[in-house]
């Protein structure tokens, strides 16, 4: 990722107003580097709300939507859940962590949460397809709706939508990019052998 893009995104967060009144809830945001590119994490003192690749094209829009959904102000900062997920991701990337424990705050419809919960049931190092995921949540034939729910996932890697491939065995889409999806799948397979 180009350094100026990361700086611009950090500047975007730093321009966010600090508490406008005593009722506003604050979320903290931090950019950090990983083996497959910089990421943004947003959390409160209890859970993470967003974990995305920093070069995602609509990231600013997702942050704005998050602010509206949660009626919060987002400022640069570090919370315990942020420290926890950064540590867990470092462990994941060196192959010593297969299950994330950092608390998550899921923002979505009942259907989306059902799809995301099923994603978290896919074992580390394995893949499945949209049709199988739809069947697992008892929504047979709703594989397109499942694909859309997966695309709305705001907690990449932790909610492992990268483990879903097309039924023909091809990788399919991934909001973080196909190269990252392939890297994540290969990384997990290497570390289960």
How would you summarize this macromolecular structure in one to three sentences?
The chain has 193 residues and is α/β, with parallel strands linked by helices.
Can you tag this structure with a few keywords?
single chain, 193 residues, alpha/beta, Arc Repressor Mutant, subunit A, four-stranded mixed beta sheet, two-stranded parallel ribbon, 7 helices
Structure description:
- The protein is α/β, with parallel strands linked by helices and 193 residues long.
- The protein folds into two domains: 92 residues, no CATH class; 81 residues, Winged helix-like DNA-binding domain superfamily/Winged helix DNA-binding domain (Arc Repressor Mutant, subunit A, Orthogonal Bundle), CATH 1.10.10.10.
- Helices cover 40% and strands 15% of the residues.
- It has a four-stranded mixed β-sheet, sandwiched between helices.
- Helix 5 packs across helix 6.
- It starts with a helix and ends with a helix.
Strand and helix order? HEEEHEHHEHHEH
Secondary-structure class:
alpha/beta
What Rg, in angstroms, do the CA atoms define? 17 Å
Question: What is the number of domains?
Answer: 2
Helix content percent band:
40-55%
Task: Give the strand content.
Answer: 5-15%
Low-confidence stretches: 17-23
Number of strands: 6
The overall pLDDT average reads 89
Number of helices: 7
Based on CA inertia axes, which overall geometry fits?
globular
Give the terminus-to-terminus CA distance: 31 Å
Strand order across the largest sheet: 3-2-1-4
List the helices and strands and how they pair.
Elements: H1 3-14, E1 25-32, E2 39-43, E3 48-53, H2 59-70, E4 72-76, H3 80-94, H4 110-119, E5 128-129, H5 130-136, H6 143-151, E6 164-165, H7 178-190
Parallel strand pairs: 1-4, 5-6
Antiparallel strand pairs: 1-2, 2-3
Helix pairs in contact: 4-6, 5-6
